[in-house]
Amino acid sequence: RDLVRSRGLGDVYKRQAIGNKNELKENNIIETGFLRKTKIMEGDFDRAFFTKADKRTLTAIDLNSNKAEVLTKQPESSYRIVDVNGHKVLQITNPAQFWSLSNYLVVKID
């Protein structure tokens, strides 16, 4: 019952997009250019590229990459990116704070 109520409010499921620069660009998640800072698109992006996740149970995301950078505005004190067996893993240390600014997560990997 709580799950149904929470789903109705949009509180439970958040979305994440993980990809290299070209993948994020092709799906209109980011905009880049020569000598320009990377910009996250607001509203005009391909939502199908995002993976749905339950914020109540999501505490780690295996990024399967040697390098990773969170591009969205999640508070830096709410997560850390660590090495596990030679690749990066995003660990969410404070889920309430992590999802407080955005329902979306964008991570650039290389």
Counted by DSSP, the helix tally is 3
Structural class: alpha+beta
The whole-number mean of residue pLDDT values reads 81
| Estimated radius of gyration | 14 Å
Largest sheet: 4 strands, mixed
Number of beta strands = 9
Alpha-carbon distance between the two ends: 41 Å
Strand content: 35-45%
Helices and strands, in order, run as HEHEEEEEEEHE
Low-confidence stretches: 1-11
Q: Taking strands numbered 1, 2, ... along the chain, how are they ordered across the largest sheet? A: 4-1-9-6
Principal-axis shape equals globular
The level of helicity is 10-25%
Provide an overview of this structure.
With 110 residues, the protein is of the alpha+beta class. The chain has helices at 2-9, 21-26, 95-98, and strands spanning 13-19, 30-33, 36-40, 51-54, 60-62, 68-70, 79-84, 87-92, 104-109. It has a 4-stranded mixed sheet with strand order 4-1-9-6. A 3-stranded antiparallel sheet has the order 5-8-7, with no helix packed on it. It has a two-stranded antiparallel ribbon with strand order 2-3. β7 (79-84) and β8 (87-92) form a beta hairpin. It starts with a helix and ends with a strand. The model is unreliable at 1-11 (pLDDT under 50).
Please describe the topology of this protein.
Layout: H1 2-9, E1 13-19, H2 21-26, E2 30-33, E3 36-40, E4 51-54, E5 60-62, E6 68-70, E7 79-84, E8 87-92, H3 95-98, E9 104-109
Brief descriptors of the model:
110 residues; alpha+beta; 4-stranded mixed beta sheet; 3-stranded antiparallel beta sheet; 3 helices; 16% helix
